[in-house]
Structure to design on (295 residues):
């Protein structure tokens, strides 16, 4: 290859890297926060079962906002441990909260994982039907910041290896996790479960915005595929159902195409709840492999 052509290729690569870093910095600025702000962590109690502690916590992601309920699942010993942030779906009332993946987190603890399971804004009763579409933009930004602060809390725990952090999110939990991934970059692996390719897929089933065109314009910066393209440096597993009434087979290809490699997409004989043993077994095996847990 001629020398000038080689130089041109190097310059293109450098420019592409600079653009990618600028985009990441811009997204991080949109979801920016003061990392020195006190999370005001409070512990309401702890339950110990077979070498695992389940700590009932509350923390405040943003000063002046309501605290977030969370469970911190910690194995006995001093580590080093991997860390996993779990975010629930919007579905059955009994699991639309931090309890959804609690048993799974407890099963991973003896393998060397500390887990943080958080309530999201959609854990509030009748959240979807009561939400004001005009507030979606601001609420979405606050939710992403809350997840970034949850990652701060997880990474700050004694014995947690900051180089072995992971994320699991189902449905809305997965979608907001995609937004976090594009701004944060700390996770080494992501698992997205039955996640639609855009928040707009869910935006218009209840109360309508005053202007749909204005709503779409304002929220365009929150497109998930844009965030996924920025989420470099980690592996991704997409888990989808063969019988999902909300996420079509064609939909599943959209986030898959946007996510950087390495990535995998797997389908299961399940519905949108994804509440089958093979889904959990695959997810746990993925986390074991990608985070260096004990088999």
């Amino acid at each position: 290859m001629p020398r000038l052509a080689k130089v041109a290729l190097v310059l293109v690569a450098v420019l592409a890297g600079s653009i990618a870093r600028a985009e990441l910095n811009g997204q991080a600025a949109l979801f920016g926060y003061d990392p020195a702000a006190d999370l005001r962590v409070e512990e309401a109690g702890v339950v110990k079962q077979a070498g695992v502690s389940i700590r009932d916590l509350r923390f405040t992601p943003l000063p002046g906002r309501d605290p977030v309920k969370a469970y911190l699942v910690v194995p006995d010993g001093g580590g080093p441990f991997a860390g996993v942030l779990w975010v629930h779906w919007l579905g059955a009332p009994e699991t639309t909260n931090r309890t959804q993946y609690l048993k799974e987190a407890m099963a991973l603890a003896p393998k060397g994982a500390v887990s943080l399971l958080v309530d999201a804004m959609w854990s509030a009763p009748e959240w979807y039907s009561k939400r004001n579409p005009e507030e979606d933009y601001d609420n979405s930004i606050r939710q992403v910041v809350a997840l970034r602060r949850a990652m701060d809390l997880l990474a700050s725990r004694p014995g947690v290896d900051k180089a072995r952090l992971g994320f699991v999110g189902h449905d809305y939990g997965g979608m907001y996790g995609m937004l976090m991934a594009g701004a944060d970059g700390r996770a080494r692996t992501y698992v997205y479960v039955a996640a639609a390719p855009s928040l707009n897929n869910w935006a218009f089933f209840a109360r309508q915005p005053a202007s749909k065109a204005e709503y779409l314009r304002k929220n365009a910066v929150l497109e998930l595929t844009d965030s996924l393209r920025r989420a470099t440096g980690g592996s991704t597993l997409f888990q989808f159902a063969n019988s999902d009434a909300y996420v079509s087979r064609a939909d599943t290809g959209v986030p898959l195409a946007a996510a950087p490699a390495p990535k995998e997409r797997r389908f299961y004989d399940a519905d949108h709840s994804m509440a089958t043993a093979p889904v959990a077994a695959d997810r746990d095996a993925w986390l074991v492999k990608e985070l260096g847990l004990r088999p």
In short: Strands lie at 42-49, 52-59, 68-75, 81-87, 113-118, 160-170, 189-193, 235-241, 263-268. The two ends are 47 Å apart (CA to CA). The CA atoms of residues 58 and 266 lie 34 Å apart. The chain has nine helices and nine strands.
